[in-house]
Amino acid sequence: MAAIGSLAFIIGFGFFMAGAWPVIGFLGLEILIVWGAFKLNYRAARRRETLKTEADDLIIQRTDPNGKIDIETLSTAWLRVQITPSIAPTTAQRYRQRVILTSHGKSTEIGSFLHPAEKKHLANELTSMIGRARERQLHGD
After folding, report:
1. What is the CA angle 136-63-109, rounded to 5?
2. Are residues 13 and 36 located together in one domain of the fold?
3. Number of domains in the chain
4. How many CA atoms does the CB half-sphere of 7 hold within 13 Å?
5. Residue 99 near residue 111, CB atoms below 8 Å
6. pLDDT one-digit tens code per residue, 62-73
7. Does the predicted TM-score (pTM) go above 0.85?
8. How many CB atoms lie within 10 A of CB 129?
9. Is the CB of residue 110 less than 8 Å from the CB of residue 118?
10. Could you list the residue range(s) of the whole structural domain that residue 16 is in?
């Protein structure tokens, strides 16, 4: 922000010296918009989902941008990972791909903030995590 502010100051000073002082207000508005975009981006970056498998359960811990934590538990015994639609949409299409977890009639979406290329990797990794949890459950570890 300091670099953008300095650049705007230099440009504004040049326009002020040339007699076009109203440009300074627009440069200030530009700085305000860039600052707002940075704030929104940093706020969205605080959103988190943490997945942890135990012998019997998959624990989903969601943290929203305000820091509120929500914990959801799904049984791994009948847990199913599904990507809908199975083929990633193009950028021109208006629908988005979703990773849905279903267990005992309860469904939840995870990774809604991820890029479609990352969602396929998430689904594969989650399937292997659930498989390892089921193996631990069967072997009693």
Report:
1. 65
2. yes
3. 2
4. 6
5. yes
6. 998 888 999 998
7. no
8. 17
9. no
10. 2-45
Helix or strand or coil: residue 112? coil
N residues, the chain: 141
Contacts 24+ apart (CB under 8 A), 28-37: 31/1, 31/4, 31/5, 34/1, 34/4, 35/1
Same domain (yes/no): 112, 56: yes
In this structure, are 30 and 88 located in the same domain? Answer: no
Contact between 118 and 86 under an 8 Å Cβ cutoff? The reply is no
Residue 33, judged by CB atoms within 10 A of its CB (0-12, 13-18, 19+), counts as exposed
Tokens of 129: 């995590």
Shared domain for 40 and 105, answered yes or no, is: no
My answer on whether 80 and 19 are in the same domain is no
**pLDDT over threshold 70, residue 95:** no
Burial of 130 (0-12, 13-18, 19+ CB in 10 A): buried
In three-state form (DSSP H/G/I as H, E/B as E, the rest C), the secondary structure along 17-69 is HCCCCCHHHHHHHHHHHHHHHHHHHHHHHCCEEEEEECCCEEEEEEECCCCCE
Do 103 and 39 share a structural domain?
A: no
